[in-house]
Amino acid sequence: MKTKVTELLGIRYPIIQGGMQWVGTAELASAVSNAGGLGILTALTQPTPDDLRREIERCRTMTDKPFGVNLTILPAITPPPYAEYMRAIIESGIKIVETAGNSPKNFIGEFKQHGIKVVHKCTSVRHALSAERYGVDIVSIDGFECAGHPGEDDVPNMILIPAAVAALKIPVVASGGIGDGRGMAAAFALGAQGINMGTRFMCTKEAPVHDNVKQALVQATERDTNLMFRTMHNTARVFKNAISEEVVAMEKRGAKFEEVRHLVAGARGKVALKNGDVNDGVVSAGMVIGLIHDVPSCAELIDRIVSECRQHLGAATAMVAV
C-alpha cells in the first residue's frame, strides 16, 4: 500500500501499533515491523532511560525494519525525567516518535533537529491543529471508542476522522475502534492515510500479555468496557472487570482519586497483565474488543487486515460503479 504515511515512515503498510504501557516491548514492536507495519516501543514501560536504550538495541536485534518509540507526556506530582528519555531516544538513533498526552511542543523542536518524524496522538480537532502548528508530521486522531484516554469531548471516529482531515494539511491516522480490514477501509474512505491499533495488537501471539487476559478480551463484547475517572475529568476506557466496576461505583458515590488510587495503580495493572488475573488490576481496552475473535500472530493479523481492506474497498467501489 502506498499512502503519505507509508512514504513518511518508510513502511510497507500504513498500520501503526499504538504505544501501550507494559505492552509495547521489543517482542511486539519487532513482530509488527517485521510484518510490514510500524512497531512502537513504549518509553515509560522502561524503568529508566538507560533501560529504554537497552530495549531499543534489543529490538534492533529482532528486526531490521523501521520502528518507533512512544513518549506519553502526562501531568504528575513527580513527573518522569522526560528530557532524559528524549535524550535516550535521540542518542539511540530512533527516527520515528509517537507522542501522546499533553502537548508535545517542548519536545518537537529537538526531535526535528535530529531528523525524527513525530506522530502525535490527540482526541480533538483543536488539539490536532495545535500539534500541526508545533510541527508534527502526522496526527493520530483518537475517537471516543479508543482504549485509554479518549478525552472529554466524546466524539466518535465517524465524525472525528473526517473533521480532522478537513481541518489539517498533514496526514491523519485513524485510531480507536479499528481491529479488522473493514475498519481500515472505512478509515480510508473517511480520508485517513493509515490506522493505529492498540487493543487489537494486545490479542496477538507476540504481545507480552498473559493468555488469560487475551482470552478474556476475545470473549468480550463491545459492551464490556468501562469509563473510569469521568467525574475527575480524566476519562479512561478500560476493560470491564471487578476493579473497574468498583472504581465506577465509588465514583458514583463521590469518591476522589486518592480513594481509588490503590485500585488503579499502574504496578497493579502490570502484574495483572503478566500473571493473568484479569480481575486484579486495570486492563486498558477499547470497544473494538467486540470485533476481536482470535489471537493470531502479528504477521497473520496484518496480512488479513490488508487483504480484507482491499476486498471491502473493492466491494464498495463496485456498488457505486456506473
Automatic annotation (TrEMBL):
Keywords linked to the UniProt accession: Flavoprotein, FMN, Monooxygenase, Oxidoreductase
One Pfam family of this chain: NMO
Source species, domain of life: Bacteria
Enzyme class, broadest EC rank: oxidoreductase
Documented EC number(s): 1.13.12.16
GO molecular function: nitronate monooxygenase activity
Record lineage: Bacteria, Pseudomonadati, Pseudomonadota, Gammaproteobacteria, Steroidobacterales
Protein's recorded name: Nitronate monooxygenase
Keyword RNA-binding part of the UniProt annotation: no
